[in-house]
Amino acid sequence: MRIAILGATSEIAKDLILLFSTSKASFELVLFGRHPLAIREWLECENLQNRYFWADLNDFGSHQFFDAILNFIGSGSPSKTADMGSDIYCITEQYDLKVMGYLKSFPDCKYIFMSSGAVYGASFEEPISDYSAATMQLNKPIADYYGAAKLVSEIRHRSYTKLAIVDLRIFSYFSHTQNINSNYLMCDIYRAIKESSTFATSESNIFRDYIDPLDLYQLIVEILRGPSINAAFDCYSKSPIGKLEILKVMQDLFGLRYKLISREAMPYPKDKIYYYSTNKNASILGYAPSADSLSTVINQIQILLSLNNIKY
Predict the structure, then answer these.
(1) What residues contact residue 114 under an 8 Å CB cut-off, 6+ apart?
(2) What tens digit of pLDDT does each residue of 79-103 get?
(3) Do 199 and 39 contact (CB within 8 A), yes or no?
(4) Taking the model in full, what pTM does it have?
(5) 272: which of 24, 58, 231, 241 is 20 to 30 A away, CA to CA?
(6) Largest Cα–Cα distance of the chain, in whole Å?
(7) Average pLDDT, the chain
(8) What is the CATH code for 74-179+210-238+277-290?
(9) Do residues 99 and 6 make contact, with C-beta atoms less than 8 angstroms apart?
(10) What 3-state class would DSSP assign to 91?
């Protein structure tokens, strides 16, 4: 199977490329990115320079044939997304429309679009369910261009009912390959462990569902090998986890020091409380996650500490 990876320098894409490289199945990948030299350098670091082709994202087009396209194009981190503002909407639309144009020439090609739980645009005061609706303030300035971009793309995809397009809504993801300087909860926790500093966080509990890299890979492989469908699926692990439980486990296993402060005293007090989904419709694809959120974060933290020779 010949697969185009768009946005190959994204952290999730790189994890999946490494997993594809270990597969006994015949997956031929062509890696596209806005910074192709960064792809080449990364392939050399992973000793995969002779395994996969790489190219500028602008070189992707209908002069090439692919059985499937995986679209990872995005910003890479919440801070970058915020800095990009409306640009993230324009970039998402630009390359999604490019893929849709490709599918007009090759309608049998499968398209997997990495979407986000942000499409729901909700306050997340309760978990997402089968009955949850996407919400957007139409009479106020758009606060979340990222979520709006993903939502508009999904609406576009559903309108092409005869094309094989699957949108995967990723809520939370943590891997030892991530940029640990990013302002994600688990990256903040890892830095505190590494630096023996005290992690300050709100006393309010929040709940996340961290999908393991291997489970996400297995879900994508199920889609690639399965029948052609046009649908969207929420990603999930075996079970979500609360922040307070993570902190206690990180303290017990890795010596994390932390302190809880009032929600009002935090610089960003409006956390999404239940940012995960109870919608398990992906099971119809044959998807059955092997890891829960707790085992995922423990495993990834252990790998990070080992790679950096940090004893605990």
Answers:
(1) 12, 70, 71, 72, 74, 168, 170
(2) 565 567 788 889 999 999 999 999 9
(3) no
(4) 0.93
(5) 231
(6) 57
(7) 92
(8) 3.40.50.720
(9) yes
(10) helix
